[in-house]
Amino acid sequence: IDTCLEDARTTPLEKQEETMRKALDKLMDLNRDTVQLPDEVKETLRPALEAARAAAGESASITRVEQLHFTLVFLGETERLDDAAAAAEAVRAWPPFELAIGSRGAFPNMSRPRVLWIGATDGAAALTKLAETLSAGLRERGFKLEDRAFQPHLTLGRAKPNGAQQARRALETLPKSTLAKFTVRGFALVQ
After folding, report:
1. Is 4 a residue whose pLDDT tops 80?
2. Residues 146, 74: contact at Cβ < 8 Å?
3. Which of 11-20, 21-30, 48-57 has maximum average pLDDT?
4. Across the strands, what pairs with 68?
5. Which residue from 29, 33, 116, 137 puts its CA 20 to 30 A from 167's CA?
6. pLDDT greater than 60 at residue 143
7. Residues with Cβ < 8 Å from 154, sequence gap 6 or more?
8. Helices vs. strands in the chain: H and E counts, helices first
9. Is residue 65's pLDDT more than 90?
10. Which residue, 68, 115, 103, 107, is CA-closest to 178?
11. Pairwise CA distance, residues 122 & 191, whole Å
């Protein structure tokens, strides 16, 4: 990990993207701790996202399937990569666990949907514990993090002004059953 991070800081910009992808494979990279979804899970979710996009029309911006991930901690702008990597060491050997994707909702709530999401069901407690442990390690190293409780979710999209009704309709297109399951084997620090 340290080698990949060092390479990312010393190589030309065009090489950084490749270096970061390699670091993801080894576990980490830069600025946002996330659980990446396996490609087959993204493909399983693609029809649900396309149905939501069609239902939302122009009233919501729906996330591209390639961008789906669970954000564990948002670090914001930082150059303290060594400190972030050190904090992540506490959870590097976290045991794999099964995670199911299947609930749905909106922030701040369904009456005023701004952020549309698909949530974790089975395995949500393990993902929450991972995020809390990682956050504690980052705070110990002086990172200023959000105080709100972690809620394991994938951002489905963002409602545009006056788009609440169609945003709710987009959420209603999602099946109430489990959409996908996978084994979480690690996380990545990505930009």
Report:
1. no
2. yes
3. 48-57
4. none
5. 33
6. yes
7. 37, 45, 63, 68, 69, 70, 101, 117, 118, 119
8. 6, 8
9. yes
10. 103
11. 27
Q: Which H or E element spans position 183?
A: strand 180-184
Question: Residue type at 86?
Answer: A
CA atoms within 13 A on the CB side of 153: 17
Residue 27 and residue 185: Cα distance in Å, rounded? 9
Which tokens is 139 given?
């705070």
Task: Please give the torsion angle defined by the CA atoms of residues 59, 64, 65 and 70, in that order, rounded to the nearest 10 degrees.
Answer: -90
Residues 6+ apart with CB under 8 A from 82: 2, 5
Total residues found in the chain within this entry: 191
Look up residue 110 and give its DSSP letter.
Answer: S
The Cα 26–Cα 19 span in angstroms is: 11
